[in-house]
Amino acid sequence: GQNIDQPTEMTATEGAIVQINCTYQTSGFNGLFWYQQHAGEAPTFLSYNVLDGLEEKGRFSSFLSRSKGYSYLLLKELQMKDSASYLCAVTESNYQLIWGAGTKLIIKP
Amino acid sequence: EPEVTQTPSHQVTQMGQEVILRCVPISNHLYFYWYRQILGQKVEFLVSFYNNEISEKSEIFDDQFSVERPDGSNFTLKIRSTKLEDSAMYFCASRIDSNSGNTIYFGEGSWLTVV
Questions:
Q1: Are A47 and A33 in contact (CB under 8 A)?
Q2: CA of B100, closest CA in chain A: separation in Å?
Q3: What is chain B's alpha carbon radius of gyration, rounded to the nearest angstrom?
Q4: Measuring CA to CA, how many Å separate A41 from each of A81, A93, B9, B88, B98?
Q5: How many Cβ atoms sit within 10 Å of the Cβ of residue B18?
Q6: What pLDDT, in 10s, does the model give residues B81-111?
Q7: What separation in angstroms does the CA of B55 have from each of A60, B21, B69, B77?
Q8: Which of B22, B35, B86, B106 has the fewest CB atoms found within 10 Å of its own CB?
Q9: Quick check: A92 pLDDT over 80?
Q10: Which residues does chain A have within 8 Å of residue B60's beta carbon, measured at their own beta carbons?
Q11: Do A99 and B44 count as a contact with CB atoms less than 8 A apart?
Q12: d(Cα B115, Cα B113) in Å, to the nearest integer?
């Protein structure tokens, strides 16, 4: 079956670093996406990983281990505006994304 | 930056009525999608569309749903006879080509409330 797991909620402090984990079991794998979603808004693209390793993009980095079915999103120098849900999604084919339930990140001053 | 646009942003409809949600994908994109998100729940795939036909659809996308690209720019989702459980945010998305690394861009969503 298909399963994508991520923590439901995390809390972090402004200026700190937080790591959001995602594990997946899917019948196929063609890449993993991380999206940010503010309440009531559409998901916005953060990162894409298809090969093992770390992809860095400014304050955000994403890591993938295909053998472990594991990814994480690392957010540095947290800002209040980073308070949002972070969605892990796996693509098995060219056509659809399979979504995790999202991790709600709460940033405290 | 080009964007996916959706109308209406919010629609309230009575149970049993037909609803059409409209989307204008990014102009040079070839793959189109509809997703939905029930309040507080995960995003769910409904359907993908390529070359004027459905490529994949989920179990949610039953006979009451249909999609159409009537004029080369609009991409519509029709719900024939709405049910209370169809209340959700519906997101249209598009992607430039079949390279799975290319970003899927989302519209801002159409919030459907069935009463």
A1: yes
A2: 5
A3: 13
A4: 14, 26, 11, 12, 26
A5: 11
A6: 999 999 999 999 998 876 656 788 899 999 9
A7: 33, 19, 14, 15
A8: B22
A9: no
A10: none
A11: yes
A12: 6
Residue B71 has a pLDDT of 85
Q: What is the DSSP letter of B104?
A: P
What sign for the dihedral angle of Cα B24, B27, B32, B38? Answer: negative
User: Contact A105/A12 with Cβ under 8 angstroms?
Assistant: yes
Residue B84: which region, alpha, beta or left (left: phi > 0; alpha: psi -120 to 50)? Answer: alpha
Q: Centre a 10 Å sphere on the Cβ of residue B54 and count the other Cβ atoms it contains.
A: 13
The number of residues in chain A equals: 109
CB atoms within 10 A of CB A37: 18
Please state, in angstroms and as integers, the Cα–Cα distance from residue A38 to each residue in A58, A85, A87, B66, B111, following that order. 20, 6, 11, 29, 15
List chain B residues with CB under 8 Å of A42: 91, 106-109
CA distance B64 to B77: 10
Contact status, residue A102 vs residue B62, Cβ threshold 8 Å? no
Q: How many CB atoms lie within 10 A of CB B62?
A: 9
pLDDT in tens, A34-64: 999 998 888 998 998 989 999 998 999 999 9
Residue-wise pLDDT tens digits, B22-64? 999 998 899 999 999 998 888 999 999 998 999 999 999 999 9
Q: Hey, of B30, B60, B100, which one would you mutate to test binding to chain A, going by the most A CBs within 10 A of its CB?
A: B100
As a whole number of angstroms, the distance between CA B35 and CA A47 comes to 19
Do A89 and A35 form a contact (C-beta atoms < 8 A)? Answer: yes
